[in-house]
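Researcher: We're teaching a course module on how sequence relates to structure. For the next exercise, students receive a sequence and then see the predicted structure as tokens, so they can try to spot secondary structure elements on their own. Here is the exercise chain.
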Amino acid sequence: MKNSKNRTKQRKKKIYFIQINKNPNKNKKNYKKTKKFKLSNELDLKYAGFQLYVKTLCEYIWIDGDMILRSKTKIYSKSITELSQLEWWAFDGSACHQADDDNDEITLKPIFMCQDPFRQGEHKLVLCETYGQDRITPAKNNFRHLAAKIMDECKDSQPQFGFEQEYFMVQKTHLNEWPLGWPNGCIPPQKDIYYCSVGSFVSIGRALAETHMRLCVNAGLKIAGINQEFAPSQWEFQIGICDGIDVSDQTWMARYILQRAGEQFGVDINYKPKNFDEDHYSSGGHMNFSLNETRTDGGFKYMTDKLMPLLEEAHTKTMPLYGEGNTARLIGKATSAYDKFNYKIGKRRQASVRIPIQAQQEGKGYFEDRRPAANIDPYLVTAALADICCLESKYLNDLNREFSESKRK
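Model: And here is the predicted structure for the students to work with:
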């Protein structure tokens, strides 16, 4: 009985943590014991139905200096129906690693808007480009401005894209992160039972993936589908088919919605191309691409005879734009090799680029670039593909220069 009481006392001690007194000279005896608490983000949902006496809440979203999404809310006392109604705004660039302390103001230019599926009603999500105080100089990691220029010069070929975004659902602590549903420190054996699986033992995280899909639909994004990938708690969503710059805008917005939905489940999202030392469980960001020239009769021959040689010639300059840490993923086993280019017809494994068998049969269609990692900036990848295939690498050096400079800032 005594032992039982002692164990109970020990268990109770674990629910307390030490709050350090503000006065460092005080003795430890004066430290306060505070009950540990947990604030559930599910409480946020209770506020969704509150009546608002303003017209529109607009959530301004941007990419920071570490390629991480940030956001804050601007309130408008009018209904917002057009992008042109939105004002430029500013934020502390030093806190987002896009400016120094002496010149810290960075401005936000709204460039894409959709319905806010969280707040609902007339409220909006607003994706922004980042600029310096002159509103002309792009801030660190604003690659969209150059991507938009390239897409504009390629408009006669009408480039279209479809993006396949793989990711892991993870749970983080201050010490580490580990995939959802995995025993801590253990890696499940590589098996084919997880891909597109059904059942609670193998299909982990479906509730979040399903919630994300529905939120994207309600936001008005062109989400094409979802599926579980080759590892438990690894999923994929697809965006497209979209014209030009739109696929990148929508991909970043879909990423934001996924991370926001994850808040409600206590789950974070991991886009790293390789999380483990093993040869399996990598995450890619495959980009499907077509032009007028490939979608019309003779398009298959145009891909094999014209575009594949262009992609091979530009391969070395392209790869730095295809995701940080991608060398660990492209090792030439289930994937292609990082330093070699090839294309295959109707085969995914070890292919840099896959041309679907349907394209060969019909003599026209699209190809899938399987080289990009999951953590890419889609503005860089889509711009590179359009530039290589339409403009014969006119801006490829500029893309690489801007990307390299962003790493040095």
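Model: If you want an answer key for the exercise: The longest strand covers residues 160-172. Residues 246-265 form the longest helix (20 residues).
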